[in-house]
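User: Predict the structure for this protein chain, please.
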Amino acid sequence: MRAWTKDGLAAAVMSSPPVATVVRSPRTTQPTANVERLKGMLKQTLRITVTDGRIFIGTFAGTDKQLNILLINTDEYRVGPDAGPDGGDGRYVGQVMTPWRLVVRVELRMGGDQKQGRSTSDEDSMYA
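Assistant: Here is the predicted structure, written as structure tokens:
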């Protein structure tokens, strides 16, 4: 489309493409106590043990709908017979998405002697 300016010059008139907008209805229910607890854990350091014996220690960045856990600034540690000679020394792995089905234990360091987590064993926590 062309438009004419005062000087008689043709100028291109650009129309913007249509923009899709989503109108969200206001939230009718309040977040549950568990959702609030999960939000409170954001940016905290978590220690996650998975089924193959690896341990991930990193900053909790969130979960997805399937409850996979996202950690950032993460170190990976191997324990057990397949740990190798430097098993105690971790390696930096950066960002990690851990499938919930592989999670054996989740620990969060809290103030004082409190701890919170999902565990299938009675062994001592590194945070206790």
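Strands lie at 2-4, 10-12, 45-50, 54-63, 69-78, 91-98, 103-109, 115-118.
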